[in-house]
Amino acid sequence: MDRFPSRAAFSHLQLGAVKFRNCGESVDVRRKHGEIECKTAQPAVVPQLTEGVALASLLAFHRRTSASTNSRTRHDFYGDRERAPDPPNLLGAGHEDIARRIFGGKISGQDVLMRHTLFGFYSRLLTEDANKKWAEDLANCRRVPIAAYLDTKSGPLSSLGASGALRKCYACIDSDLVQGEIPGWRVLHQLPFLSHCVEHSQHLVSICPSCSHAFERGADFRLPIDPCRHCGYAQYPVRTPELCRGQLLLGRLCSRVFSGLVPDLEPSRWVDWVNATNAEFVNAEIAVASVEGHLIELWDVSSIAELSSVLGYTLPGDFVGQELGLAMSSRIWLSRLLVFSAACSLMNKNPTSGNAASEELSEVNGRFELLARLAAASAIPQGVIDRLIAGDAVSAVVGARMVTIGRLRRFLRSLPREISSLLQKTGKNGRQQRRADSPLKETKHDELLAVSRQALLDAKAVNANLTRTEAAKLFPSRYRWLTRHDSEWLAAELPSLLPSSGGVQGWFSYFDNEKERRQAYQNVVLEFLRHKPGAGRSEVYKEQRRAMTWLLQNERAWCDLHVPFQAKSQSRFEWYRGAEPLVLPEPVLKSRYRDDDERTALSKTAVLRMRALNPHLLRSELVRACSSSINWLRHRDPEWLEEHLPPTVRDPKRK
Ligand SMILES: [Zn+2]
Ligand SMILES: [Zn+2]
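^ thats the input. predicted complex w/ zinc ion below
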């Protein structure tokens, strides 16, 4: 894929992080002082921005597609303001105007703030009153110092304060490009106390490694994929830093705070949470001691004071005691995040009954709420989601509803991992419940289970090295039934070389990360080559299509090193799989032929008829055309076969 699309290519990219569609606004062109001035009520396209992508991406995109000047872009964005906010506007000043002018009123100003700006993160740590006032200030682009709401003495609120540059994650850029989206700046990457991407655990980059200039300070309207403007550096170094558990926990917490899943950090609820936590640890002193000890362990430091220098923030040395004693100012927020993440990880480690269970329940409810919100954002009717939760299959749900199966699948794939696994679990429970409720279905299920399992066991008894593909060919409907209803048993009886994503709910990705996927695929291919040392690339590809497709796309160099292009000579003319043909188990054989002799006779007839009807066929073509008959005859009657197949044509160039 071209990493740096030209401007023309940009205007054709339609999907993703920045989506544009035409809404047919008319453009009012008039002459003024001999110049043509284009005045638009709002830009002629309405963008859709993925949640969590910063407004800076939109400004940059807008600047590029309209090919206008910097000041013109700002004018378009914020309207006729005396003092438009400076880009990159991470806090979202002028959000009401942006919602109206840029999003055409499709989303509210509040949505712009909560989804695309750092306000969406920090406001979760403030009281409702403070939030309201701050949002109002931002809407009017009033330059009230942020210090009026949040503490800024202990450290900066955004990456611009610390390094003076926007930060990006190369893995995020890659995943956006793979999905056909235009990569954008992420809001969460701009939190200065996080040095890694929460999603990919990769190092965040803001400074060009080649010339040490910042990639983007906000004023140049550049996107994360743009090369360095000073030296043109355009490589994608992948750096997975050593992260301590404290960093990982803090990152995950921040992402959940931004999604609004951690209401306890709001100052008025914080009091309740602290009281409950202290009670959990018997009293406040024990709580402080254990949280401090755990923080030291999590962050791999020798004292709490050292934590400040690791994070680059000046926190009071006794901040844990102050937080758990409710003595800390509510304007100081980082200490609250640290104490919360450490205490939660402590309590999860030794879960106590009652409170933990109710917490888990509220977390599950929070996920359902989030699911409902995501569904509404993608225009998926709630009825469809309810039926999925109740355990209906995707294909059954779309029948009578106003949603296509493709759109629903895309939506399900886009869900965060924790939500899709929750959906999978509740769906499974629902199906089991339903089966238990109807005894008639239960007996039918048992019957089918017995029959299908028996079919597989029969086939295995006569074919020692039965593969999944062969089983599917032998008894297609029984095999499909097993993959849907008894996948665990099937996996135990007939393990697949590759981990499967599991039957009908196959839209859940199996691998946790790319590293795991690479490892699994490489193992599969190496294992295959160990069994068939002479195999060439096309044969490996045919047998291990999923692994090879991925490896050829992502690990070309590895493939070139380990998988030979050309098969070694001994397997070049080997035209059937394995040393033994597939033996039909009794029931399958009986449903097709009277006995093995009839199978032989019919196979011979098939070959003869095929040859009579197509006298021009070469030997290899005939073998391919009736492969199963010939496989069988190779085993039963090789002399007959040699007599009746066309002679082998040797390529004179080959020896
Ligand atoms: Zn990332
Ligand atoms: Zn550079």
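Residues 1-44, 350-355, 500-509, 571-578 have pLDDT under 50 and may be disordered.
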